[in-house]
Amino acid sequence: MKRFGLILFVLAWLVGCGGEQTAVSPTTAPVLPTATSLPTVAAAPTTADEPATATPESVAAAPATETAVPTPDLVAITATPVAVVPDVERPVLSVVTQPDYAESECSDKYPCNEDIAAWEARIQVPDGFQATYFTRIDGKPTVMTFGPDGLIYIATLDGHVLTVDSSGQVATVLEGLLWPTGLAFQPGTNNLYISSRVSNEGVGGEAQISLWRDGQLRQIVGGLPCCYTSLHAANGIAFGPDGYGYVGVGGRADHGEILLEGPDQGKQDELQPLEAAIVRFSPDGSEVSAYARGLRNSYDLAWDANGRLYATDNSPDFGPPDELNLVEPGKEYGYPWFDCGSCFSPPPGVEITPPIYEFVPHSAPTGVTTYLAEQFPGFYNGVFAVLWSAFPGAQKVVYFDEGGINATDFAMGFAQPMDVAVGPEGSLYVVDHATGIIFRIDYVGQSEG
User: Fold this and answer.
1) Which of 27, 86, 103, 264 gets the most CB atoms within 10 Å of its CB?
2) What is the mean pLDDT of the segment spanning 137-161?
């Protein structure tokens, strides 16, 4: 019997990140866990038929334990590193196309989750590259990063942080979080920073950044804005060349309006200082400030070797293009001033910085990373971004040349690709939210002729 799933909650999740899903779509996200612990925001996507044997619809996580640990030292780097770009020319990339949906005994669109051969045949990459099925996890992955120990660290919607070793073995290192969506290690340390939620209320919600070290967990930054229709909050984290942490924090509405019932409904809300912003924080949490503003719901961040900060952003529900932004300090990027019948105009003197690239509307860009390895020839300091949703033009990994220019479709065929990370050996890893599968992409050499 074919297994399909449609959870109404995910429709709300999609609406919060870019519109209602009408195209063929992959899987659904589980109902929010009931645990109360760390804060985090989710960005994105879509209603969908459950591909293959997706994870349970709802998992109640146990409360996390908050144990005080010593305040971490602030690691400050005084100079921005200059990229040493390997003198290698990038090969011309062959065209990659989205494969047709194919029925299996588990889904009307995708192979069964455990069908390794079928998934490897489905994922399309350019000539010279190879995509392999690395492993699979449960729990709807939301974010992925590599630790200083070489392990993959993955947070899941049901409140866990898992590790995956080089052989694909999965272990649980932390549980009880409320919707974690950001993970980042402070460079040169074993300090893992996690964004999640304290309270998932649409009005009066709260997100936070927590530090996990030596098996202990404590809040570093609290009181972050949360959560438009159970969505926008604190998302991806990335440490900058100045030693500070940076986190994307979503807006509390679709386009800045008051969402409460009553006479003020539809009027412009007063933005909180850290709302719809890239927030900069010291590792000990003693300094917190808005680095740049006007980003409706940046799901992930990445620094390149020249100290440039990239951020994906999910645009309003009425359907403007989603974005890749080059984030600069003090700049305004548009929220809550959009062009629609019920939107608001920017105040006099406010200059809006445009994105460096526009994705198709409702594509729901999530993970982003810069390629600072050498396995892929000529890719050094380029950018990989993931498009989560199942709308036409998404469900893929896009590559940008250095500086965020010249977008090229790099990998297609996923159900809901959620995040991307570069391994110590230079391979590119893509984790799929719908299936829990982690794919590994390697350069194997282009064919002659």
Assistant:
1) 27
2) 97
CATH of residue 264: 2.120.10.30
Q: How far apart are CA 106 and CA 114, in angstroms?
A: 10
Q: Are 27 and 21 in contact (CB under 8 A)?
A: no
In a domain, 18, yes or no: yes
- How far, in Å, CA of 118 to CA of 107, rounded? 13
Q: 316: which DSSP letter?
A: P
Q: Which of 22-36, 321-335, 401-415 has the lowest mean pLDDT?
A: 22-36
C-alpha to C-alpha distance for 430 and 422, rounded to whole angstroms? 9
Match 């919707």 to its residue by tokens.
179
Q: Report the alpha-carbon distance of residue 68 to residue 76 in Å, rounded.
A: 23
- Give a yes or no: residue 67 inside a domain: no
Query: Tokens representing 274?
Result: 């850290």
Q: Which of residues 196 and 65 earns the better pLDDT score?
A: 196
- Please tell me the total count of domains within the chain: 1
Q: Are 111 and 102 in contact (CB under 8 A)?
A: yes
CB distance 370 to 383 below 8 Å = yes
Say if residues 221 and 235 touch (Cβ distance below 8 Å).
no
Q: Is residue 448 part of a domain?
A: no
Task: Return the C-alpha torsion angle 44, 211, 66, 219, nearest 10.
Answer: -70
Average pLDDT over residues 254-275: 87
CA pair distance 444, 449, nearest whole angstrom: 16
Range of the domain at 217: 8-57+76-443
One-letter amino acid of 437: I
pLDDT number for residue 448: 66
What's residue 230's pLDDT? 77
Q: In which region does residue 80 sit, left (phi positive, over 0), alpha (psi from -120 to 50) or beta (all else)? A: beta
Q: pLDDT at position 116, please?
A: 98
Write down the mean pLDDT value for the chain. Answer: 84
What are the φ and ψ backbone dihedral angles of 105, each rounded to 5 degrees?
A: -70, -10
**Residue 272: per-residue pLDDT:** 94
Report the C-alpha gap between 6 and 101 in whole angstroms. 18
Report which of 304, 335, 62, 38 is spatially closest to residue 195, judged by C-alpha positions.
38
